[in-house]
Amino acid sequence: MTLDGITSPAELFHPESLGIPDVIFFYRSNDVTQSCSSGRSTTIHVRCSPQKTVPGSLSLPGTCSDGTCDGCNFHFLWESAAACPLCSVADYHAIVSSCVAGIQKTTYVWREPKLCSGGISLPEQRVTICKTIDFWLKVGISAGTCTAILLTVLTCYFWKKNQKLEYKYSKLVMNATLKDCDLPAADSCAIMEGEDVEDDLIFTSKKSFFGKIKSFS
Questions:
Q1: What distance in Å separates the CA atoms of residue 64 and residue 6, rounded to the nearest whole number?
Q2: Per residue in 190-210, pLDDT tens?
């Protein structure tokens, strides 16, 4: 990486392995010397290392044991937990225990590996009241028993009601049959033999009577 003419070669130090890029500080001195015509410069790689507490450790490039390869440009690697990002809610997770004697515990722990420093602290352990599997099993059995009893009662009720309806229907049919048997027999409407002849005689006699009156007139 180069900034304002100051170069910090990446191969000077072993690469970081946590996925957090180094923060590089560039320093320049404009004092010109016979050996450093462009002045002197210093680069400091600040790297996140959660295992190294403040102030951390300072190391030199493996290829330049004195920190400089030309006597004008110096390079250092500073590893410290202070270089890590501040801790946030995303850096921890909750572990919920099983329900024991109606009590459930929630414990908060840092994610591994821990890549933060400072910031927020872990929340305190939380204790809540819970229901065990035995409790819900008892509730299910009780609900099933009540449902079965209710269905049995309803079945008996409707069966008894159906029996009453059948009895009433049978009684109505029997009463209707008895009423039909008690009615008087209908008179015959058939014309008895000889009735037509008598009517014809009456009609003929009436006609002859009117004929006589007509002849007198």
A1: 17
A2: 445 554 444 454 444 544 544
For residues 191 and 83, what is the distance between their CA atoms, to the nearest angstrom?
132
Q: Is 108 exposed, middle or buried (0-12, 13-18, 19+ CB in 10 A)?
A: middle
Q: Are 21 and 28 in contact (CB under 8 A)?
A: no
How would you classify the pairing of strands 73-80 and 57-59?
Answer: antiparallel
- The span from the CA of 77 to the CA of 27, in Å, is 14
Residue pair 79/52 in contact (Cβ under 8 Å)? The answer is yes
- Amino acid at position 174, single letter: M
Give alpha helix (H) positions in the chain: 133-182, 195-216
Mean pLDDT taken over the chain: 78
pLDDT digits (tens, 9 = 90+) for 7-59: 777 778 887 777 888 888 999 888 888 888 888 889 999 999 888 888 888 88
How many angstroms separate the CA atoms of 64 and 173, rounded?
A: 120
- pLDDT, tens only, 129-153: 887 666 667 777 888 888 888 888 8
Closest residue by Cα to residue 20 from 49, 54, 44: 49
Query: Which neighbouring-strand residues pair with 128?
Result: 104
Tell which residue, 143, 139, 141, 162, has the closest CA to residue 151: 143
- C-alpha 80/C-alpha 53 separation (Å) is 6
